[in-house]
Amino acid sequence: MATDFWASSHYKRWIVDRATLKESRSDDLQYVDDPEYLDFFAIFFANVITKLGKKLNFRQRVISTAIVFFRRFYIKNSYCETDPFIVIAACCYVAGKAEESPVHIKNMVAEARLFFSQQPYGVKYFPSDNSKLAEMEFYLVADLECDLTVFHPYRTLLSICKKESSNDLQTEAGEVGVGVDDGPRYWGSGDGQLELPDDAFQLAWSIINDTYRSDLCLLYPPHLLAITALYLAVVLHGPTRELLQQQSHSADVTPAHSSPRRSSRQNSSTSSSHAKKPSQDFVAFFAELNISMSLVATIAQEIISLYTLWERYLEDSDLVDSARTSFHGHASSQAQPGASHSGVSTPVESLDDVHRPHGVTPTFLLQVLTRMRENRLSDMAHASSGRPVAVNKMLERTQAAG
Hints:
Order of helices and strands: HHHHHHHHHHHHHHHHHHH
Helix content: 55-70%
Strand content: under 5%
Number of strands: 0
Number of helices: 19
Largest sheet: none
Structural class: mainly alpha
Oligomer: single chain
Radius of gyration: 26 Å
């Protein structure tokens, strides 16, 4: 049994390069107006899987596994030729089995059908027949090459931050190899571990969760994503950042009168506590890592780019509220004297006209997906008069449900 990520088949099989990802989206790029919409699809579908997983009471690792299965499946398939919603249900169903949190197929179908029928999805065609999901499960496992073991960055984060024995996180540490002390560690010596405050650790955990809104889980090994999340947490967490700044200026001696006067008892207790638990050197920790910090910086930039893109993704309710506020503000400005040079007010035609360039919503993305599938089916219908269009026969019956 593999004891770590590097000894597993995951590293060679499921870490892909950007050229492979671009090639996997070649069919979709023919039918999408803006290639950037495919990046928004990554955010949208990850959010859908997360919401469905929470309704099924899945742990975070099960949800993350389902997202990884979804990403792997679409390395070999395209959005315009498949129904992503039946794929999402199958990914959650298989992830529950793989992570020992199984859900009965009847409950999965019922929950998915009810959830997808609600707004903004409005999917009325989701099959009620359990055999459709079972069939999609077969296709999914086949495209995953029966490799259902997923290594997540959580394992590295727990190991480096010495959180493996934490009661509330112990269930997330149950992956193969956690707690193994023998053999080489990518963080160098066995002493290269870091203790973070709980809120800083939670920030790093949240950053890892956010990386699943992109293809980072397919591009980089999980330990690099964990270390990058840890690096960003140290920089972004206020108290930890202040401590880091103090350490960077450790050569400067702080005058005694600059700190508030304390009693001798407080001083002695403080000095004894510092003697027991010295302040950790974050700079030295990252400098001693047995990894490329330039690569960590590159991943950090990609995560920041993800957040920049994510800011433009809005749920439909958020966009309507924002549009309504802007609409009233626009109407008020038009009512003021001199607001219009022509003397004729130009009110906004509808709420959809406001902020459309600034935000992408699930409703808009579903419209884009529908157009992509319709155009693809149209090309396939006209293929008989020209060169035949390759069709994924395995998914043909499942697609008929859509």
